[in-house]
Structure formats: C-alpha cells, structure tokens
TrEMBL record:
It holds the Pfam family UreD. The keyword Cytoplasm applies. Required for maturation of urease via the functional incorporation of the urease nickel metallocenter. The gene is ureD. The lineage of its organism: Bacteria, Bacillati, Actinomycetota, Actinomycetes, Streptosporangiales. GO terms for cellular component: cytoplasm. This is Urease accessory protein UreD. It comes from Nonomuraea muscovyensis. Its main location: cytoplasm. Belongs to the UreD family. It is found in: Cytoplasm. UreD, UreF and UreG form a complex that acts as a GTP-hydrolysis-dependent molecular chaperone, activating the urease apoprotein by helping to assemble the nickel containing metallocenter of UreC. The UreE protein probably delivers the nickel.
Length: 266
C-alpha cells in the first residue's frame, strides 16, 4: 500500500504493531444501497465510490504501510437483507518485514444476509522477503445470498524470494460448511514451490462464486490455459450452489488474465 501517514503503535496493547479494525455495513433503502457504517481505522481508509445501480461501492485506500510484523488488522463487512455491496482496494497490499519477528495478522470477516450480494475484489497481496503474514477470510452466507470473491497472492517482488505467508478461507452457507482451505508458502512450508503446489510459478489466485442459481444449473469442470508454463486455471463446482476457479501463473498479469477468462464462464 502507498505510505501516506506515519505508523503508530496502539498503546492499549502490549504487543508491538498496529491494532486496527475497519467496519462496513450496507443496508437497502428503496432502490439503492446505503452505507450507515463506514468506519476507517489504522491503515484502512474507506472511501465511498460512485454507486452502480443499486450497488454501493467502497474502495480501501492505504493510510500507512501495512501489514508489518506484529500488526493485528481486521476488516468486517456486512451486507444486510437485500443490499448490494462491492468492495475493492486502490492498490496492492504489501506484506513487509516489521520491527519484530512476530507474524502479522490480516483478518477479513464477511456476512451476507438473505437476497443480498457482496463482491469482495481487492488488489493482489504481495509477500516480500522476510515478511511473515497470517491471513484469514471467514464468510457467512444466508441461503439466498450471493457472493463473488477474488483472491490473488504474489510470492516475492521481482527477483526476490517471498516471505512466510499462510492464508485460510472458510465459507459457510446456510450454517453449513461450504469451503475450508488453507495454504502455506515460503520458508518452512513443505514443498510449496514443488510440482504439487506452485510448480515454479510465483502468482496464485482464485475466484469463488456462490449463487443459488447453481442449484438449478450446476457448472461442469473446465480447464483454461493451453500452456502450463504460461499458467493455467481450473473451474470446479463445489458441493452447494458455488463454483471455485483456481489459477497459477508466472506473474500477476497472466494470473489476472486467466481469472478474467474464467469469470464469464462462471
């Protein structure tokens, strides 16, 4: 993220680093979606963007360099019944080495109510050398909720090895577990760069789409990308009204092309 303000340590905590929680709440109001809660905190500067039809849009700007070692960061977003919410970020999130060897945490909590829609489409996460980040995304969906989620990770900058990166995505639909996956990259992660995981690539990503329409018209398995050296993606239906697109590529540009290619199929 772009550095626009000096870092400060929350004196309410004894642990080093920045402790911050940003909150977004979207509610329906006639033919529009309002944002009664748009609370920025720490490195998260939340900005309301121009709406698109009923959809309210929020862009996350970086108010300081984060996450660094010791940081405890969290974003909570809720789309109430019938609301349409679209969230993105203005720039990539860059995990950096901090003043302490302790890992940083970046937790995202998304809640989508009945007949609500939420698009979570941030820019990529970049894991830089000697950084250490634990990232989680926990999602609770009502039976008629709709979700589009995109995640992208870049392992190291140009000619740089990555730091330690652990990510976990947990999705519950109608109270039942739909998806629970965890990945580990970088030093101490077994075979993370081997043929069974990244196969030498440095960019990984996925798109998760949850939509009740898939119960009536389930999707089939699709493979995208003819040359494995240039990256490939696979579209897989999940047990439930959802599909998951998983992609690997040498760099983030080719990764995004694969994900964009898969999204219309979804």
């Amino acid at each position: 993220m772009t550095v626009t303000a000096p870092r400060t340590t929350d004196t309410k905590h004894t642990a080093p680093g920045v402790h911050a929680t940003a909150r977004i709440r979207a509610v329906t109001s006639g033919d529009t979606t309002d944002l009664p809660v748009l609370d920025s905190d720490g490195p998260f500067d939340l900005r309301r963007s121009r709406s698109h039809g009923k959809q309210a849009r929020v862009c996350i700007l970086g108010a300081m360099s984060a996450p660094l070692g010791g940081d405890r960061l969290r974003i909570e977003a809720t789309a109430e019944q019938g609301a349409h919410l679209h969230i993105t970020s203005a720039a990539a999130t860059i995990a950096l080495r901090g003043p302490t060897p302790e890992h940083a945490t970046y937790d995202v909590r998304l809640t989508v109510a009945e007949q609500a829609r939420l698009h979570w489409l941030p820019q990529p996460l970049i894991s830089t050398a000697r950084s250490n980040l634990h990232q989680t995304c926990t999602i609770d969906l009502a039976p008629t909720a709709r979700l589009v989620l995109r995640e992208e990770q870049v392992l190291g900058r140009a000619n740089e090895l990555p730091g330690r990166l652990t990510t976990r995505l947990t999705v519950r639909h109608d109270g039942h577990l739909l998806l629970d996956q965890q990945t580990r990259y970088g030093p101490d992660a077994p075979a993370w760069d081997g043929p069974a995981v990244l196969a030498g690539h440095r960019a990984a990503g996925q798109i998760l789409i949850v939509d009740p329409a898939f119960e009536q018209e389930p999707s089939g398995v699709r493979l995208l990308g003819e040359d494995p050296a240039q990256g490939q993606a696979v579209l897989t239906p999940l047990t439930g009204p959802a599909i998951l697109v998983t992609a690997l590529a040498p760099d983030v540009l080719r990764l995004r092309r694969l994900l964009d290619m898969a999204h219309p199929l979804a």
